[in-house]
Design goal:
This protein is α+β, with helices and mostly antiparallel strands and 254 residues long. The protein contains 5 helices and 9 strands; from the N terminus they run H-H-H-H-H-E-E-E-E-E-E-E-E-E.
Length: 254
């Protein structure tokens, strides 16, 4: 073989090897690099940068049927434990104690008949599986408070119906708002079990025009569970709220 032919063959082999090496360099080095990019949120929705792991988890279908708040307001995670403060999470862990003590105090102070009339609303075991998310739209809601936080206040208070709403944002957040009344609340609903969502939010008071964000003002923060207790009936239960009661209920109906 002539020397020129040998050089040509070597040049072609070298180019082919370089091309194969380049393909190898472009392969992802980790599963995270293989994940699709998170889409940009809609304008006007406040954002925080989420870890890649949270984005990957949010991209997976949720077995509870809840819509995870991926790339949304609360850090772009569908894990409420990543958002909730330790003390609030501990209070939620004592939900059974709040039910028991609040009901006992209301009964002992003469409100047993009123509480009994509420029926399934005050049954701690009333949660039903499936259809956990209230569909986006307008709702009526009313607040019931049982037990006094310090043992000296009212053991039972019920309020009239106010306006509530559920909104699904372009970023995937499911937001529950109590829009009227002197104590208004707004927060996100996170997937948890097949019988409940976890609510993470905060209260606005009086004539305040804006809702505080969770964690912004600790005495306004709220952590609770949202459960479906009827065909088109939901209950938000907040144990050990920061003000007034041992247990706070928000009944939600269309």
């Amino acid at each position: 073989m002539r020397r020129s032919s040998v050089l040509t063959a070597l040049a072609l082999a070298t180019a082919a090897a370089a091309g194969l090496a380049a393909c190898g360099d472009n392969r992802p080095n980790s599963p995270a690099e293989m994940s699709p990019a998170v889409s940009k949120p809609a304008p006007g929705v406040p954002q925080q940068v989420a870890p890649q792991a949270a984005s990957d988890a949010a991209a997976q279908p949720d077995p509870t049927g809840a819509t995870p708040p991926a790339a949304g307001e609360q850090g772009g995670t569908d894990q409420w434990r990543a958002v909730a403060k330790r003390d609030d999470a501990a209070s939620l862990g004592r939900l059974d104690d709040a039910w028991r003590m609040a009901r006992a105090e209301a009964d002992a102070k003469g409100f047993a008949a009123k509480v009994e009339k509420l029926g399934v609303l005050v049954d701690p075991n009333a949660a039903q599986a499936g259809r956990l998310q209230p569909p986006p739209g307008a709702y009526r809601c009313r607040t019931i408070k049982m037990g006094s936080r310090d043992g000296a206040g009212l053991a039972y208070v019920d309020y009239p119906w106010f306006a509530c709403s559920v909104e699904l944002t372009p970023g995937g957040d499911l937001i529950l708002s109590k829009a009227t009344g002197s104590q208004r609340t707004q927060g996100l609903l996170y997937p948890d079990t097949d019988r409940r969502l976890v609510y993470v939010g905060a209260q606005a008071w009086g004539d305040e025009a804006q809702y505080p964000r969770y964690g912004q003002t600790p005495e306004r923060d709220q952590l609770g569970v949202l459960e479906r207790i009827g065909q088109n009936r939901w209950r938000l239960t907040i144990p050990w709220p920061k003000q007034e009661a041992k247990l706070e209920l928000l009944e939600i109906v269309p």
